[in-house]
Design brief:
Blueprint (H helix, E strand, L loop, with lengths): L17 E6 L5 H5 L5 E5 L10 E4 L3 H13 L6 E5 L1 H16 L11 H18 L4 E15 L4 E8 L3 H10 L2 E13 L5 E11 L9 E2 L10 E3 L8 H18 L1
Parallel strand pairs: 1-5, 1-7, 2-3, 2-4, 4-5
Antiparallel strand pairs: 5-6, 7-8, 7-9, 8-10
Helix pairs in contact: 3-4, 4-5
Length: about 260
């Protein structure tokens, strides 16, 4: 392997990053993701019935491993892979590992061997997608847990992706962006602060917050806008890609 002689170009295509997009059930993340370019769904929950999309129904971890190998051959037109949902895929991975070890639960293997087997199996397979030329989106549900602060004197609710902690430690670091989708009341006001309109809208939250997990790794000096509205008249991610892509290009031109 030769050492590099030139710097790489900065990526400005939002479809080329790795994302984790999580929301409460039913908010529309699958419909949103269906607007990505040349997308293929790895459907673990049969959540694409209301859409006309390219998809593969996955029931076992063996199914998923086979699909990954087929994708790596490159004999297809897909550019973006959607795992919908990652929580169910994790369950399949754990069941597969337990079956191969002849146990019912990872804790039955001594010295953490069961959990270690799951982590290695997950990492070995997912890494193939991470290092592939395709965009990758993990879709997941949100969960709320209570965290204790100030020595136990204060408790706060914190929203994060719903998945086992040991898998979270593998998934979260490899994602360039973690977005949380929620329903927010958006108000428009006049110059005097009078409310002109008030509507509940689906919003993508892009910046970390004391109340929920989010992440940005864009390489720009100024963070991506915290709230991007999922336009109800355009129920796909087209609006998001335009806003996000334009922002990346503008910021990197300024930083050049």
């Amino acid at each position: 392997m030769k050492l590099p002689t030139e710097k790489t170009d900065i990526e400005t295509d939002p479809a080329k990053f790795t994302y984790f997009f999580y929301t409460p059930p039913g908010l529309g993340k699958t419909t949103f993701a269906s607007g990505l370019p040349d997308v293929m769904f790895v459907d673990t929950e049969r959540g694409t019935k209301h859409l006309s999309v390219f998809k593969v129904d996955v029931d076992t971890w063996e199914d998923f491993r086979t699909i990954v190998l087929e994708l790596m051959k490159g004999d297809h037109h897909f550019q973006t892979i959607i795992i919908d949902t990652v929580g169910r895929l994790i369950e399949m991975c754990i069941r597969y590992c337990m079956k191969t070890m002849g146990i019912q639960h990872p804790s039955e293997a001594g010295w953490g061997a069961g959990w270690d087997k799951c982590k290695k199996e997950w990492d070995n397979t997912i890494t193939k997608l991470i290092y592939s030329p395709y965009g990758l989106w993990f879709l997941g549900h949100s969960t709320t847990r209570t965290i204790t602060m100030d020595g136990g004197a204060k408790k706060e609710d914190y929203i994060e992706p719903d998945m086992p902690n040991f898998i979270g430690k593998l998934v979260i670091p490899i994602c360039d962006f973690i977005f949380y989708g929620q329903m927010l009341n958006i108000q428009k006001k006049d110059e005097k602060g009078k409310v002109l309109s008030s509507n509940n809208q689906r919003v993508i939250r892009t910046q970390t917050n004391p109340s929920f997990r989010a992440k940005q790794r864009s390489g720009v000096s100024k963070p991506i806008p915290d709230k991007i509205i999922m336009d109800p008249t355009e129920p796909t991610c087209k609006t998001f890609l335009e806003v996000f892509g334009n922002y990346l290009r503008q910021q990197r031109e300024l930083n050049a």
